[in-house]
Amino acid sequence: xxxxxNQCRSPLTGAFLRQEVERRxxxxxxxxxxxxxxxxxxxxxxxxxxxxFGLDLRAHRSRKVDRDLLLGADAVLGAERLHVREAxxxxxxxxxxxxxxxxxxxxxxxxxPRAPDESLRTWLALLSAGRDRMTLMGASPxxxxxxxxxxxxxxxRTTAELLEGLTRRFVSRAWPA
Length: 177
Known about the structure:
Layout: E1 2-3, H1 9-23, E2 33-34, H2 44-52, H3 67-72, E3 76-78, H4 81-90, E4 98-100, H5 101-108, H6 120-128, H7 156-174
Parallel strand pairs: 1-2, 3-4
Helix pairs in contact: 1-7, 5-7
């Protein structure tokens, strides 16, 4: 999961993803990163919002995304189009498996859930079929999860609620019971 600084949206989403895959007993590694320098904690408001959902982000430290991280990922999910765009610029081969969280959920709910014998990469390539890279240009209220750290029109609690719902919906399609 990617966001700008890896201090708010991606740590929250990562925590929700971990919680959901653990609840289902899945062996899935969830990593988060951002495009700024490493080593910073989650913002205090993010830690507080996470705690309201029973998640502890006090030990979180930001990580800067790099090419190796992208190459090893079966799925690359960004909080905004900008994050997906930057990931694809950093490593072109991730395009078929790189989406905004909102876009991947929308596409996943429009097709059959992933089959038990289908790899995640194969299923994501199916979701990616017919996409145009130009759809990553600009910002989009349909695709982007706004950053409550920099955008005063949204708050951390509301953002956490949105991310929790999106991650649950994604996991239910990518790893159906």
